[in-house]
Structure prediction request, 144 residues.
Amino acid sequence: MQTEDTEGILQECDAGVKTAVNCIDAVIDRTDNEALRQALQNSRTEHVKLGNEIAAMLDEHGYTGKDPNLISKIMSKTKINAELMMQPTDATVAELMIDGCNMGVKKLSEYVNRFPTSTSPAIHTAERLIKTEQELMDAMRVYL
Prediction:
């Protein structure tokens, strides 16, 4: 059971990191405020770092990674483009990122609870990813 739970949580973290990086990439060049752009870049860097650690953990255990759900990817991209077409402001970027982070925190917390016998390093990685999402939400609030 521990092996299955560890694989499950690492795969969900992998998909979550990839989703976060894709969303940041979709909005970062559409910001006017340099401080906002830098906050997004800093978070992207942290997500990529975590993604590399997750990939190494997956590889170490012989597990495969997980890509974000295709439907979710399409829906995220569509929402981002539609919202920014209607209101191309930094506040819209911040709101979109907060919504995405909130969803990420919710899903990751659900996976931590769903995979209770995961190894400590896998749980710790998920908790670090949750913290990274919360920090990005906090950074975005000033732009609303």
Summary: The domain at 2-141 is CATH 1.20.1260.10 (Ferritin).
